[in-house]
Amino acid sequence: MQTPAASAVRPPASVDSIEVNRLNLGWLVKLRWASVIGQVATILGVEFAMGVPLPLAPLAAIVAVEVLTNVACSQWHRRRITVRERHLSWLIALDLLLFTGLLYLTGGPTNPFSSLYLVHLSLAALAVGQRHTWALVALTLACSAALFQGHVPLEMGGHDHAAMGHYGMHLKGMWVALGVAAAFIVYFLDRLKRALAEREGELRLARERTARQEHLAGLAALAAGAAHELASPLATIAVVAKELERALSETPAGEDARLIRSEVGRCSEILSELAVDAGQARGEPPTATRVGELLTNLKKTLGDDARISLAFEDGLGDREILTHPRLLSRALKSVVENALDAVGPSGSVQVDAELREGRLRLLVTDDGCGMSPEVAARALAPFYSTKQPGKGMGLGLFLAANIAEQLGGELTLRSEPGQGTTVSMEIGT
């Protein structure tokens, strides 16, 4: 036997399930409004178009209850109040009882629209769990059995519907009911299929994002380890190179010593910034940066390579954007260096800057040989490279894509064999 203490403790519903229940409530509200409209149209059509007398007052009362409860549910959904599975079950149960009341007043089981019980059960199977669904099935069977025990018969010309033998009209009603049930079921099953597809897409993106983060964590750990292990040897080399430079300052070898010291300093700088290359921003706040200055400095960093040309929209070169210039420069440098490798010594690379809906878009276009669809699909993956061994680690585009995402944007690639490649980096400003 369960103790009172144990029975009083219930695990809280997950945030995802509560959000799903809230979405289901929204769809139930829409369906109930459609049902109210259909019921009113059917009642008026039977009463005035077909000339079949109906108890309009009690029917109107039932429809009024539906309208009032749906207004309350709409307010509930709009205020984002927590929705539990049992709440949805109670709402569907209320609809079953109200629908039973309508059928009771309009012929009971002889009403062709009695088959619409299946719509309620289909919605229950989609919206609530198995336990609640079977409870609603039991309620449906009980309501249907009660209608067989008693109902208000439809009368046409003062005679019972069955006694008049209006079989053709009954068949037409069944056909209409079948169409309505099929339309609702197909519509909501299609919505469910789309929702599942969207959810699967979101999960796939989440898995890809998690995989990138794992790769980045590995790179950051590798950078930290390399910096730690090489810091002392590089410092020693720098000291020795400085002593050699002083001792050999008057000889031709002094220039070599200065070159060694300069390269050692460059290695130390690279190691210290390797974490930034891995997408770690070090908590630096964004700063105002001119777009033209950013790209001009980039070209200088690459030795004013004649193959690189810059283009700006009117006035964009002098415009300031709020970003992390160091991160953005390193990402853009990786993309441009990759493009320069692709075009060779006789090719060209164009960097375009444009502003679209308040976001900065940088386009790096080369006239190289392009990529096949298979290569383009893997180009942003870490450690993937088509270069010869020793020419690169395959991290440039991967890190650039991560930095673009870190800056509130994205990096996309478009390439065709023989048509060159365009890399688009879009960031928030």
Notable characteristics:
single chain, 429 residues, alpha+beta, Heat Shock Protein 90, five-stranded mixed sheet, disordered N terminus
Q: What does this protein structure show overall?
A:
This protein has three domains: 10-165, no CATH class; 208-277; 287-428, Heat Shock Protein 90 (2-Layer Sandwich). The strands form three sheets. The chain has a five-stranded mixed sheet with strand order 4-6-7-9-8. It has a two-stranded antiparallel sheet with strand order 1-2. It has 14 helices and nine strands. The protein has 429 residues and is α+β, with helices and mostly antiparallel strands.
Summarize the structure.
The chain contains 14 helices and nine strands. It is an alpha+beta fold. The strands form three sheets. It has a five-stranded mixed β-sheet with strand order 4-6-7-9-8.
